[in-house]
Every structure is written in structure tokens, then in C-alpha cells.
Amino acid sequence: MAVTLVIASAVGAARAAAPADLVALRTGAHNVLLGRCVPCHRGSADGAKNKALAVFDLDRAEWSQTVSDERLPILMDRLQSTGTPAERAQVQQFIDAELAYRVIARGQSR
Ligand code: HEC
User: Fold this and answer.
1) Residue among 37, 58, 65 to mutate when testing ligand 1 (max atoms within 8 A of CB)
2) SS3 100
């Protein structure tokens, strides 16, 4: 359902701007990861790790843009041992919507 809405709104959206539904899902995932993936993935944190920041840095507004399509599903692997079922569902929704949006955004840029 959420994915359908994202696709529908993405078609009409300017190429550079992510649709509002996706922005909300991205923010939700960001909040989950801030609770679970620091200090390593947060540039300003003591104990941040350069290799982890290269994958994503939660201090960046566009934190998810450095995560490749192939790596997005790995977020779920890393959440298996630490997240709650609700947190995992939230991040999975974001991943599905983000991947769907990227396909559309690429189509528009051709
Ligand atoms: C203790 C430090 C630490 C924590 C906590 C941590 N990571 Fe990482 N993460 C790393 C490091 C270092 C790398 C780069 C090296 C590697 O791939 O293991 C990495 C890499 C990754 C990658 C890319 C893996 C690949 O195979 O390409 C993903 C995705 C990722 N982390 C997600 C997460 C998520 C999601 C969380 C929180 C649930 C998390 N990490 C928590 C240190 C951490």
C-alpha cells in the first residue's frame, strides 16, 4: 500500500525531490538506525568508524543516498540481532519504497 502511494506520487514529482511519503519513511528509518547503529555510523559520535561512515553517516540529511541498491537490504541483516519487530518492519518499508523510487527516478533521467 505505502509502496503504491510512493510510486504514484513519485511519477509526478520533480526528479531531484523524493516524494513526501518516502521522506517520511526515510525519517522513520533514520530514527530507528540512530537508536541502533551508533556510534559507528554517526560521524559526530565518539567511536564513529570511517568504514562504517563510508556506507552511511546518520549525521547527513541525505544519509541513505550513499547506500547502494545492493546494500540497502543488508540494513535488515544488521537489524536482525538488535531491532524490535516493529523497528524491522519500519526499516523494511523504507527499503522497499526507496528501491521503488530509485527505479522511477532513473527512468526519468534517461
Ligand atoms: C560496532 C560498529 C558498528 C555498528 C554498531 C553498526 N555497524 Fe554497520 N558497519 C560497521 C563497519 C565498520 C562497516 C564496514 C565494514 C563492514 O562491512 O563490516 C559496516 C558496514 C555496514 C553495511 C555494509 C555491509 C556490506 O556488506 O556492504 C551495512 C548495510 C551496515 N553496516 C548497516 C548497519 C546497520 C543497519 C546497523 C545498525 C542496526 C549497523 N550497521 C551497526 C560498523 C558498525
Assistant:
1) 37
2) helix
14/54 Cα distance (integer angstroms): 28
CB 75 within 8 A of CB 52: no
> Structural domain boundaries of the chain?
2-109
Helical ranges in the chain per DSSP H: 2-12, 20-36, 50-55, 74-79, 85-109
**Residue whose C-alpha is closest to residue 103's, from 20, 12, 11, 34:** 11
Least confident of 16-30, 31-45, 67-81: 16-30
Ligand 1 center to residue 108 CA distance, Å?
A: 31
Residues 65-84 have pLDDT tens digits of 999 999 999 999 999 999 99
Binding site membership of 33 for ligand 1 (Cβ less than 6 Å): yes
C-alpha of residue 7 to centroid of ligand 1, in Å: 29
